[in-house]
Write a structure and sequence with these properties.
about 325 residues; alpha+beta; PUA domain-like; Trna Endonuclease, Chain: A, domain 1; nine-stranded mixed beta sheet; 6 helices
C-alpha cells in the first residue's frame, strides 16, 4: 500500500517521506522502525566534493543496470558497530524482509533550506557482487576504505536519467591503494536470527573464499620479508566503472592475479586479467605473476612460461616461485 503512494520520478521532502515510510529525517541510510523499508539517500554535492560519485554505471552487464552507492562512515567503513548500522541494514535487507528505496537530492524547497528528494525506485543488492571496496577521501582529506554497494532495480519501475549516470573518466589513471582494500578485510556480521543467515546476497563460492584466504596468507608471508603489497584502483578514460587489481609488489615491480583454484579456467582468467590491468600500471612493464593455492598441472605451468608470466603457489608449507625473492627468503 505504501509503495503505491510514490512512483519513480516523484519528488518529496524527508518529512513527507517519514509520513509514508517512517525512518528518520537525517542520515544517508535510514532503516524504518514502522515499515519494512530501508530508505537510502544520495546527495551528489556531498560525494562529488570528496571526489567520488554515486550513480548509475553507463556500462550495463548481462543482468542489466547497476547503481553504485557509497556506504556510511567517516573513517574506514564497516558493517559492525555503531558506524556500521546503516551499511548492515543494506547488506541484510533481504534477510530482514525490507525493501531498499533509493532517493536523490535534487535542490531545495524554494525559500527554505529543506532538500527535495527524487524517488529512483526500489532496489536490491546485486546477488553476484553485492559490494566492492575502494579508497576515497573523507571530509578531512584523508584516504579511507569505503564500501560501494552495487544496487539493482527491482522490476521495471525505476528512473534512470542521464544526469544520474556517473560521469565517465576524463583520462585513464591507475592509483596505488592499500592492499587491505579488499572484501576479505571487512567483517560481515550474521543477522539477528536464531537460524543461520541466508545473507542478502549470494554467498561467496568456495573458490572466492579460498582466494581471500590466499591473499591474507600471502600478505603475511611477504610482510615477514619486508615487502609491503598494494593494489591498483584503475579508472579507464570514457568509462564509469572502476577496476581493482589484485596484489602488487612495488619493490620488485610485480603485479599478481590471485585465484582460489588452480584449474585451467582459473589460470586462463588470471592471464586475461593480468594482460588487461598491466596496460595501465605505471611504471610500465611490470612482471606478471599468477598466485595459486596449490601447484597446477604441468601443462598450465608450460602455458604461463610460454607467456613469460611467473607462477607462484602455496605448497602446503610456504609460497614457491615468488618473483624477486631469494631462495633463502
Amino acid at each position: 500500500m505504501v509503495a503505491a503512494q510514490i512512483v519513480p520520478g516523484q519528488v518529496k521532502t524527508r518529512a513527507e517521506l517519514k509520513v509514508l515510510f517512517g525512518g528518520g529525517t537525517q542520515g544517508g541510510i535510514c532503516p524504518s522502525a514502522t515499515t519494512a523499508n530501508v530508505l537510502v539517500f544520495t546527495d551528489p554535492k556531498v560525494g562529488e566534493a570528496l571526489g567520488y560519485h554515486d550513480g548509475w554505471l553507463a556500462e550495463e552487464d548481462e543482468y542489466g543496470p547497476v547503481f553504485e552507492y557509497t556506504g556510511h562512515g567517516p573513517g574506514d567503513q564497516t558493517f559492525v558497530g555503531r558506524h556500521g548500522t546503516g551499511n548492515r541494514a543494506i547488506l541484510h535487507h533481504v534477510d530482514d524482509g525490507r525493501a531498499l528505496r533509493l532517493f536523490k537530492a535534487v535542490g531545495k524547497v524554494p525559500g527554505s533550506g529543506t532538500k527535495r528528494q527524487r524517488y529512483l525506485g526500489q532496489f536490491e543488492l546485486d546477488s553476484i557482487q553485492p559490494y566492492v571496496m575502494r579508497e576515497a577521501l573523507n571530509d578531512k582529506g584523508i584516504m579511507r576504505r569505503v564500501i560501494v554497494f552495487r544496487l539493482r532495480p527491482v522490476g521495471q519501475e525505476f528512473e534512470r536519467r542521464n544526469e544520474d549516470v556517473i560521469p565517465p573518466a576524463p583520462e585513464t589513471k591507475a592509483v596505488a591503494v592499500a592492499a587491505e582494500v579488499t572484501n576479505s578485510a571487512v567483517v560481515e556480521p550474521e543477522t539477528n536470527k536464531k537460524t543461520k543467515s541466508s545473507r542478502s546476497a549470494a554467498p561467496k563460492t568456495v573458490a572466492e573464499r579460498r582466494e581471500a584466504e590466499l591473499a591474507d596468507k600471502f600478505q603475511a608471508f611477504m610482510g615477514a620479508r619486508g615487502r609491503k603489497l598494494a593494489r591498483f584502483q584503475i579508472k579507464v578514460k570514457g568509462l564509469t566503472s572502476t577496476l581493482l587489481t589484485d596484489l602488487y609488489d612495488e619493490q620488485a615491480h610485480v603485479l599478481y592475479e590471485l585465484k582460489g583454484a588452480s584449474t585451467r579456467e582459473a589460470v586462463r582468467m588470471a592471464i586475461g586479467q593480468l594482460l588487461d590491468y598491466s596496460r595501465h600500471v605505471k611504471p610500465a612493464g611490470p612482471q606478471l605473476a599468477v598466485l595459486l593455492p596449490e601447484e597446477p598441472h604441468d601443462d598450465l605451468r608450460a602455458l604461463l612460461e610460454s607467456l613469460e608470466i611467473a607462477l607462484a603457489y602455496w605448497d602446503g608449507k610456504t609460497f614457491v616461485g615468488v618473483p624477486g625473492l631469494n631462495a633463502s627468503n
